[in-house]
Predict the structure.
Amino acid sequence: MHETALVRSLLTQVRELAHAQGGGAVREIHVQCGQLSGVDPELVRLAFQRLRCDGGCGSAELVLEDVALAARCRVCKSEFSPLGFSFRCPGCASTSVDVVRGEGFILESIVVAADDAEQAR
Amino acid sequence: MNRVIAVHRDVYDEQRCQAAEFRRRLERCGTLAVNVLSSPGAGKTSLLEALAHAAPRRRAAVLVGDIATQRDAERLARWMPAVQLTTGGACHLELPLVVRGYDALPTHDLDVLFIENVGNLVCPSSHDLGEHLRVVLLSTTEGDDKPGKYPKAFRTSDGLVINKIDLLPYVPFSVEAATADARVIRPDLPVWAVSAHKGVGIAEFSAWLDRQQMSLRERGDGA
């Protein structure tokens, strides 16, 4: 259910970006779906198939990358994967850690067709 | 030839900016916003009633999120200004509805704005409502293995209140096990064990809220 609203928002942002950068049909939408983003990638894919035409991206392919959680310890500076969502540093047992990847739902890039024939369609 | 437009922006960024703006607006009034999350029936409304009873001089108001009815706002209105936010179907609160509710309050001269979220440990985790603190409530009747099953709720929370400790003799719940499970995900998470119904343990949690609110005021005065 949330993935529907999220994909609508994604498509709006993609359309606005493509328009701001000179227009053209959107060919690819590259998204990173973090492990702790609260977003289900399969539901995103399904919502995208349903909404892309109404969203003005009917010829676009969604390229969705799953991104695993990664954290960095502020004390020993080591980076680790929080297995089992454990956020204690496995190196020095510190709890002063920052998440460096895997919390967001990131619009990474879009690929836009640039030739006039494509724009005319 | 296709063009690549690099973006690298979280789709939720705009919502987060708006939430940050609302948070700053509350800070200018010296108001600490507390977003309370839990499963349905864990005792969010009872906790807020107990807090009001324990600290009658706290200038508080509440925005209550539910899919339907005004029941919780009616209960809390006996203690503080209360606005019911009826989502009509959405299983979580979102910022625009919260801001409309805040604007409908009779006063903004508040120490604390409580936001009682819709009962749900999943979806509310993803939505910044402009709060300064997020508190997750878990009751002893839900099982002490729940924190690990809701990682985002517990990872994004600033405090855990374990409610209904008056029922501990009757349920297979360990406060220590639930605390340990929550601290896997959020190692320094403060935890309070309370009974909102009996008024046990409320004073300590209330005092923590007071300290957080005073810190917010001091930061605002020093800015």
Remarks:
- Chain A is about 30% helix and 30% strand.
